[in-house]
Amino acid sequence: MSIKRLVKGLLFVAISLLFVSSTDPDNVQNVIKVGEVTNEIRMGKFAGNRNLSIGVKNILEEILLDLDYDLSDRADTQVNVRLVFFDIKNIGKNFGVYHSKLSVTQIIAIGELVKDGKVVKRTTQKGQSKEISNSTLIVASDGTFNQQTASIALKRVCESIIKDLLLWKNF
Known about the structure:
By secondary structure, the chain is an alpha/beta fold. It has helices at residues 2-21, 25-28, 50-66, 147-166; strands at 31-39, 70-71, 77-95, 98-115, 118-135.
């Protein structure tokens, strides 16, 4: 009886492997991974900030999932991103007790689509977001960092990179 049991077990394993290994050919094209996200910003308070790289990687994964890509560490295709510029420009006007402030957060990143170890496409994208505040009191322009405007700019630049790299053709 043990031989019958062994044969049944092996047959079960073989059939299971067939079902697991058989994949939809259309679905194979949608397997991707987020590769390296590096912070190459040279000046400012975000220079070399590792948390910024991790945050961008999370944003990229979220965008890929929204576009119906499957994430896998074993994928042959990956997206790499290099952050090269991050700046907040503050433009303000004061007239007596009236204050108007415009903060523009700008981010420039370079994205690469890598397939089987070779760069298939490269793109440079710029993302920005604006914050406008008006008040009737005199407010100092201290140039503080606003998490929400930076997040919006990061999402915009990541979306631009993914769309430019992946929606140009089905690879």
